[in-house]
Specification:
Blueprint lengths: L1 H6 L10 E3 L2 E3 L2 H25 L4 H22 L4 H21 L8 H7 L13 H14 L2 H9 L5 H33 L1 H12 L2 H4 L9 H11 L20 H6 L5 H21 L17
Antiparallel strand pairs: 1-2
Helix pairs in contact: 2-3, 2-4, 3-6, 4-6, 6-8, 8-9
This protein binds zinc ion.
Length: 302
């Protein structure tokens, strides 16, 4: 190929079979080898994260959603049609990572619907761990559409408008997210028809999922706190509960523990919160002015 350019007296730097701007240019065979190494590295990464999940669940979750997942999503933006290779990544997520996230060493079945739901954005009831085989096409189409005005200008050698280009880039991103939301909304609508219990939980989770988006330096949860909260979002009892609830000796179900008339967790947290506020108020106004019960003096103490 370089000889062709030289024959035409064109000064063009020609390279082949190598990585270029995060993607790959060259023969299909060598590209496949390069891809296979990447996929192997990502699958190893997923297994490693699953192995250490029991001690640092929130860090592991943040690692996959904010970092590792971004690596294959970037590649989806610049290389089309490697869905088959990504199936290995999806298999590792589904069979290894998600069970570690929800159940540790206890077994759990992640069926197709649940897996699909977990891939939703947080405000649509998911946890942002997308199935890469499902998103590859729309990510690539968005990246192809974003620079379309720029490419047209190059081909026609016409004047380039930065404003028109920026507007096209924004429009491509908005269209992609709008399509995502429409698809997720349709899935939730279907779910509401045949699993109303889970749907009710998801409706609550949609409005209280900020903890999943919080940066580690703003909110740190222990592995158990993270897992219990995650399980409750999806209508699953926390693991390792006692058989009976100690306030009333009935079977320990989370819903009962929250509302038990003999000593609910809601009341216990209310009392703990009250003591906290009393301590703050005493520091601000002085001990004699703050108490949790009115002082009634009677008899000779009056
Ligand atoms: Zn009870």
């Amino acid at each position: 190929m370089p000889a062709v350019f030289e024959a035409e007296s064109l000064s063009i730097q020609f390279t082949c079979d190598q990585r270029y701007v995060g993607g790959f240019i060259g023969s299909i065979t060598i590209k496949q080898k390069w891809l296979s190494l990447l996929i192997e590295k990502w699958v190893d990464g997923i297994h490693t994260l699953a192995q250490v999940a029991s001690c640092c669940l929130q860090t592991v979750y943040t690692g996959i959603t904010m970092s590792l997942q971004a690596e294959w999503q970037y590649l989806c933006h610049v290389i089309p049609g490697f869905t088959k290779d990504l199936a290995l990544v999806e298999a590792a997520i589904c069979s290894n990572f998600l069970p570690a996230l929800f159940s540790g060493s206890t077994s759990i079945t992640i069926d197709n619907d649940f897996n699909h739901l977990l891939g939703h954005s947080v405000k649509m009831g998911g946890i942002r761990i997308h199935d890469p085989t499902q998103v590859i096409n729309c990510l690539f189409e968005a990246s192809k559409s974003a620079p379309s005005i720029f490419v047209e200008n190059l081909v026609a050698n016409s004047d380039f408008s930065v404003e028109a280009h920026s507007s096209q880039v924004c429009q491509s991103a908005v269209t992609m997210w709008h399509n995502h939301e429409t698809e997720e909304g349709a899935f939730l609508k279907d779910l509401s028809l045949y699993n109303s219990g889970l749907w009710n939980h998801i409706n609550t989770a949609k409005e209280s999922g900020a903890w999943l988006m919080a940066m580690l330096q703003c909110l740190q949860l222990s592995a158990k706190e993270f897992q219990d909260t995650l399980r409750l979002c999806y209508s699953k009892q926390p693991l390792n509960l006692d058989d009976t609830y100690d306030s009333c000796c009935q079977q320990f179900l989370f819903e009962h523990a929250m509302l038990c008339k003999k000593g609910s967790l809601v009341m216990q947290w209310h009392k703990a919160g009250k003591q906290e506020w009393i301590a703050f108020a005493k520091l601000a106004y002085g001990k004699s002015l703050v108490g949790d019960k009115p002082k009634n003096f009677f008899g000779c103490n009056m």
